[in-house]
Fold:
Amino acid sequence: MNKYLLVFVLAFTSCNKHVNVNNEHISLSSPFYLESESNDLVTSDYIINTQNIDSVSGSNGLILNLSTNKSLLNIHISKSISQLSNIKIWTNGVSTDIPIINSEKSIKKIELLDVYKKYQNVLLKGEFTNWQLKRLNYKKDKWIYNALVEKGEHQYVFLIDGVESLDLNNSSQISNGSGGFNSVLKVENFESELPLIYSDDLFEKSFNINSINQFTKVLVYLDNNIIKVYNDQLGTNTIKIILPKNIKKGRSLIRVYAANKYGRGNDLLIPLHDGEIITNTNNLQRTDFHNQIMYFLMVDRFLDGDISNTKKLSNDSVNYKVDYFGGDLRGVINKINDDYFTNLGINTIWLSPITQNPEGAFGLWKDPLTKFSAYHGYWPISNTKIDYRFGDDRTFTELITKAHDKNINVILDYVANHVHIEHPLYKSNPDWATSLYLPDGSMNTEKWDDHRLTTWFDTFLPTLDFSNKEVVEKMTDSASYWLTNFDLDGFRHDATKHIQLDFWRTLTKKIKNKVDRPVFQIGETYGSPDLIKSYVNSGMLNGQFDFNLYDSSVQAFANPNSSFVDLSNSLKKSLYYYGYNHLMGNITGNQDRARFISYASGDLSFNEDTKKAGWSREVKMTDTLAYKNLEMLHAFNLFIPGIPSIYYGDEYGSIGGNDPDNRKLMKFKKLNLFELKLKEKVSDLIKLRKSNLSLLYGTTSVEFVDKDILVLKRRYFDQTSLAIFNKSNTSFKYNDTLIEAKDYKIIIYEAN
Structure:
């Protein structure tokens, strides 16, 4: 079979002396998704000073209208358009190109038969409603809801007269991860027919991109400039890209998007340095976000390096599990100095909040009866002052300096959504908070979905009202303080979905104006992929934590009755929604979930209240095979796209129920043989990822999946990686590779 080439010649506008020299860019232009016939693009997501916009233009089929103040660009679809398009924004004579992706959403009718008219009220919630309750309409013996959904699978449940219920007319169900099930709406997916593009032959000044399945449309970008395509009509399965001579010094990125009549396929990301394609991981830097291995530590629970600032509450109403343990910034510095993170392979430390928290005890847990201290840092009474129990400005500066000396980033957990009632901001401006009570008189606490932008986390934690511009300015200034006063590398943002988008846009713009260095921002949102994605673009956050994929991972690797098929579907959904080279965090656990290994050992049940379990009994290690399960979870996270994020203690297998039992004091000594072996394996896996570009920038595909077997493949030019997982009770042979029962293998191939 002949191999044809479709040659792509790079062309640039005559006004550019160098490629991508546009200081107006907010950052790399993320794709804009068309969700309807008429769409509003916020120009500040892409251009720092929108008043400098000269003009806009777009692909055929798009009608563009720039608002008078240049803050919004309305994109109207005038006719049937390709899955991929482009718009160009001219600013001071320099262009910024933005990939435009047409929505693949369609309306699917969900019906509930009610021939006897016995129901009074039928509601529905699911992934396509961001888990907010939506009312069904009654018509001719049926309750009907029209769901606007993407291709693929979508979970949902009914609430019938106050009682949660599955859709009895739909036999497709999936575990909800909490002991129950959700119904699954399946929308036709042409996955097998979509183009799968991958980097192929690499030459001195050019390279090829090949494809499984033909594409009908391809867009190639060098940073924020589209590369003009010249089609010589030789074929459509292979393209050749010739690198220009005048690429800017330092880091550049090539992005490729492809689609055909069945929809959008995968995308490629290829890093360059000084105009040369990177082929060796030694040329990557800690500021290359795709190269990050993140480690989350709760400062108070990590290491007490300075006993002089250790202060417990010494309050009989506070259970020892929720009192201060004494960990501090000096303890983190000590572990940086003794190469704990370096030896493990960590290059990004994520610190829990270090701002001043209240002195007393708050909240109430009934079993056992106890109040809580603010050891975790999430109850701020200041947004800029470091809690004396953790350290001071000088110590924090030393920590960042020591980390950077070891080539390690430091990002800080920042709490913007709420303050503690003792916070001076709330005391002086109580009207800056939302109301504790809803219009019907009920208390607006823990209404995570139905009132996500106004709900209070507790009666002593007022949620700030970010519809108030003064609040936005005050809190974004407070966040900016940490970047202008310390050489900090970024933020993990708490409770992201509970804050209006305007806050994130304002903060990101301030960061770009005030700080001349890469700043990484990752958020925390529990919800549907649509909701999570809405916060991730070039004008807001770089990524979020993929809790949906984590839930599937826990089931796949800890529950022997689960299927790898569900995990495979979750992975594909994440890649589809967030891109095939996303910066989403792939976690091993976090401070709001029971420890993975305790599920895997069988001491925690998926059907029990794991928070109560952590309070009422000692969670134990009941089956040491759980260490292998956790190792497989680490291997999965370190193989797939995204940022592997290790919850402190998961490198050796810390056990525990949910909060606070999952926040035990970190162990550095007296690890048993199983813990030592797991820690060594995790270190080996991290080093494998960091030394192979296919695991950082490679194309990702599911090669094979059934209940107990999962085979993943990644490819970057001449390097191919395979991950083969076998959770069955028998060995499995894939091609010529034998995988033992309850085991996995990662194989790296280099082309001759």
